[in-house]
Amino acid sequence: MIRESIGAVPLRLRARRFRVSAWRSRVRARVPGGPALPHYISQASLHGQRGRGFYRQLVRAGTGARPGAMAEWGERLAGVHGVLLDISGVLYDGGEDGGAAIAGSVEAVARLKRSGLKVRFCTNESQKARGALVGLLRQMGFTISEGEVTAPAPAACLILRERGLRPHLLVHEGIRSEFDQIDMSNPNCVVIADAGEDFSYQNMNKAFQVLMGLENPVLISLGKGRYYKETSGLKLDVGAYMRALEYACGIKAEVVGKPSPEFFKSALKEMGVDAHQAVMIGDDIVGDVGGAQRCGMRALQVRTGKFRPSDEHHPEVKADGYVDNLAEAVDLLLLHSDK
Question: Could you give the C-alpha distances from 197 to 170, 223, 282, in angstroms and in order?
Fold first, then answer.
């Protein structure tokens, strides 16, 4: 039985390559509410009920974490059966060279999938077609399939078909292929997404002219984020340009993507989990956290991607928890979700 003192950990536990001396010297990840826990512990083979039990003992006794703080996390995450993961800013940071995986995120996703929890990816990515995005993530080492990703462009195509809408597209070249089967003759709506360098005056004005020429103008926006983070820094997102067209045309855009409740509900349906059994993990306090909570889900914000310290003091949205990165979120989920 493990005693409260780190130095009293039995030899049979130390034999599992978790040497006492290393606990103090190889500090790489924080346990909420307590001292540091070496990140390499969470990367080890702690799978299945036996592994989870050993990990709990390490957290509770070996690290000296405050029992009250761990109990709070237990209450927040108890009964979670499914996890929705944002992609940009949680799994990786994009960039002109394709971007880079965030430290620990590849293994964190793998651990989640091995745990038995249901996992789905929910993204507002609108510069890359879903297949291209999945291909990029696979190159980085993530185990992910196209069918596991809920993305706004395919969802928008369903809406266009159902309502007989013919769009004028103001989108990035990377997602135009998603609309190949959509009739775009004589447009009766505008679809706007993160067009990047294609957000020129000429292109914005053309979208404005199409909308002003319609008796009942329809503007569909793939997400409404303010900004996102790439390896080179922060970038303006589609929300700023969506607001400009709303203001100029005197209309309200229909948002397809986070934080739209319909978008979250679609992802939950695909995952086969009720909202109260799911948790969203994202870097956007409004789009990810606020949107998920309005649907009845729990939500954690990571301190990676677009996260800003002021997010923890947002006047309207408070996450169910804040974690340094996806790896820490997975540590907590595997510790508490089965309670």
Answer: 11, 18, 26
